[in-house]
Structure formats: C-alpha cells, structure tokens
Recover the amino acids of this structure.
C-alpha cells in the first residue's frame, strides 16, 4: 500500500497555487456584484480588473482585449463561429480549418457545422503540415466568407510545439483569421500575442495553478470580434454576458502573474527532470516509443507507448503504484477513448499510450518513484510475455 501520492498529470490540471487560493477565497467572501455601482460592487470590479491586467501582461496583450469565460472550452466556442464582426459590420466566415491534433474543445468546431469545417493534417512527428494548410487556404472559396484557422501552440498529449508564427503569416496572407489555443503553453513557454502575430489567444486558469472555472479569449485588437456566444445583461462589453466568476478570475490573475514570471528558468529545470526520466525509461525498455520525441516539445510532457501496456490497464497499474498519470486528454466521463492525436499522427489510435506531465513542484523523488513504478509494471509485462 502506497501512502504518498505522486501527481504526474499536470496537463489535465495543475495543483492550485497558494497565491491563487488566497485570491480566490478573498474575492469569494466579498459581497458585491461587479456590475453594481456601490462600493461593494466596485471592490469586486477592482479585483477583476487587476486580474485582467495581470493576464494581459502575461501575454503582452492589452487589458481591454481580455474577455473572461468559464474556461478554454467556452472561449473556443466563443471564437469558433461563422459570425464575426468588424466594428459594427458583419464579417462572415466561410469555413473553419482545424488541425488533426487540436484539443476536442477546438476540434469539435464550436459553432460551425461539420460541413463548414476542414481538418488539416499533421506529420508523424506531431507537427502540423503547413504546406497542406496553405494548399487548403489557396483553394478556400471566399464567396461564403473568410477562412478561420485554429491551431494550438502546444499539444496537450504529446507536448509538441506548433509553428504558430509561420501559420499566422500564411493565414494572414490568405486574408484569414487565426485563433491560437495557448492553454498548455501558458506558463511553460513565453507567450507574446504580438510576436505570435495571432488574432486571438485562448488560455485557461486551471492549467496554470489557478482555480477551475475561468479562462479567457484574448484578442489582438478591439474591432474584430466574434458574435457573442452568451447573451444577456451585456457584461464584458457585450462579448460575454453574465455576472463574472469573480473569485475564480481573481485566482486566475494571481496564477497568471506567477506563470509568466521566470518561465525560461522554470522550463529548463523541469526539462532536466523530464529528460533524465525519459533516458531511464529507455534504459529500462529500449523499445519505449516517446511520441513527438524528435520535435520541439513542452519541457514537462512525456507521451509514451510500451508494447503490451494498454492505456486503461497502464493507468490503473500506475495508480495502484501511487502515481497519477493519464492516457492523454481527460474526457468528462473519465473513460479512455482512442487518441485522435495518435490517429492524426498516422499511428494506430488504439495503441496504448500514457502521458506523464509534471510541473514546478515535481521533485526528483517523484521522478524516481515514477521510474521505479515503470520498471515494476513493464517488468511484469515482460515476465507475462516470456511465460
Ligand atoms: N485546450 C487544450 C490544449 C487543453 O489541454 C484543454 C484542457 O484539457 C482545453 C483546451 C480546455 O480547457 P478547459 O478545461 O479550460 O475548458
């Protein structure tokens, strides 16, 4: 029986930071509605505005361009719509292009129908095929409206980093709009909306140590915006009605400040732990396949397959060893489905794959115990094969 748990599933959600917890509790106890003009309301509004400034600063955007949502999934559903506006004028979008490895929040296409969507391919290295995207954009029929392209900055399963800046140049050359899913990259890579040259960024609080239930759509400017998804009282300048989740937003702001400070040093320290763990895994089972290994990857992610180790049984085996890891993206039912990311990379989606994802508070002991669990689990498989 293992008493101390080892949390190796930071890409599913990161542990709540102390600073985020404090901000969350402080604001949760405040009385006012942020839209009220009285002192109580203004005090909550001030907390939201401070968080807005922190998040904007973290990605080099303007505070006025941050629209808070309930999370990245809602931000994706806000951004992925055939109905945009340029100021007051309607700006129709003819087709949505999503990569084969986008997170389901984007892959499902938001407010587009399946007939209005195209999927652009990814190589076996996990990197999007920009030549294929360019060919698709060259053939885009502008009669129905502009092209809208969704691309993630880093993949949640493999950690592979995508060439967003090159994609932005391409999309803009074809008169299109780019929405970048920066959920997994936030806090792990420096993010600058200007340098990335994207029209929109999507971020999520709980992936960076903030509370669950807050996220944001961040725009480059103020004139180009999607038609709102949630209508009502006109909060957030009409872009997202409803009383803001002020406590979660305050926690998000506190986490964003930490996420964007000292990113490079933190990433380098995490990469050392991850790389030495991968070297150990390969020493134990040389045939271990580390997906996206030869591509530029997030420093914290290892998505691997070992022959004979199924996703479901592998997760349970590690869980019994006290190690919490996952089979890729955490879907709502908790069941392990086929990985559309592996499928997008041209691999057998039923191939068992497991994801280890770590964070700033992961220790060397955590890594050693995970490697020891890997040694025992794969040893049992080898024994069963030999029998
Ligand atoms: N995009 C990526 C890359 C993710 O990993 C996730 C969460 O798993 C999401 C979007 C959705 O984020 P949220 O949980 O805030 O809706």
């Amino acid at each position: 029986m293992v008493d101390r748990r080892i949390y190796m599933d930071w890409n599913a959600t990161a542990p709540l930071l102390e600073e985020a917890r404090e901000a969350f509790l402080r604001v949760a106890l405040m009385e006012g509605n942020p839209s009220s003009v009285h002192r109580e309301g203004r005090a909550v509004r001030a907390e939201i505005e401070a968080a807005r400034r922190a998040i904007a600063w973290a990605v080099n955007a303007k505070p006025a361009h941050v629209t808070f949502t309930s999370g990245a999934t809602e931000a994706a559903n806000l951004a992925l719509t055939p109905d945009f506006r340029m100021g007051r004028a309607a700006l129709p979008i003819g087709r949505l292009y999503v990569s084969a490895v986008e997170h389901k929040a984007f892959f499902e296409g938001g407010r587009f129908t399946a007939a209005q969507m195209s999927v652009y391919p990814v190589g076996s290295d996990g990197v999007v095929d920009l030549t294929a995207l360019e060919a698709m954009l060259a053939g885009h029929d502008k009669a129905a409206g502009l092209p809208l392209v969704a691309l993630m900055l880093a993949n949640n399963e493999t950690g592979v980093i995508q060439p967003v800046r090159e994609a932005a140049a391409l999309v803009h050359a074809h008169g299109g709009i780019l929405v970048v899913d920066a959920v997994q990259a936030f806090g792990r890579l420096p993010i600058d909306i200007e340098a990335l040259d994207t029209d929109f960024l999507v971020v999520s609080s709980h992936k960076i140590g903030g509370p669950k239930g807050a996220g944001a759509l961040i725009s480059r400017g103020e004139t180009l915006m999607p038609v709102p998804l949630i209508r009502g009282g006109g909060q957030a300048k009409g872009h997202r009605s409803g009383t803001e989740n002020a406590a979660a937003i305050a926690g998000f702001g506190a986490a964003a400040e930490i996420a964007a400070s000292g990113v490079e040093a933190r990433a380098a320290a995490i990469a050392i732990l991850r790389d030495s763990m991968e070297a150990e895994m390969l020493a134990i089972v040389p045939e271990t396949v580390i997906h996206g290994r030869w591509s530029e990857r997030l420093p914290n992610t290892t998505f691997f397959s070992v022959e004979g180790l199924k996703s479901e049984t592998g997760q349970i085996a590690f869980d019994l060893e006290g190690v919490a890891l996952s089979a890729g993206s955490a879907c709502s039912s908790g069941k392990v489905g086929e990985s559309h990311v592996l499928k997008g990379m041209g691999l057998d989606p039923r191939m068992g794959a497991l994801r280890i994802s770590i964070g700033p508070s992961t220790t060397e002991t955590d890594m050693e115990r995970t490697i020891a669990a890997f040694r025992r689990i794969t040893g049992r498989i080898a024994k069963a094969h030999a029998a």
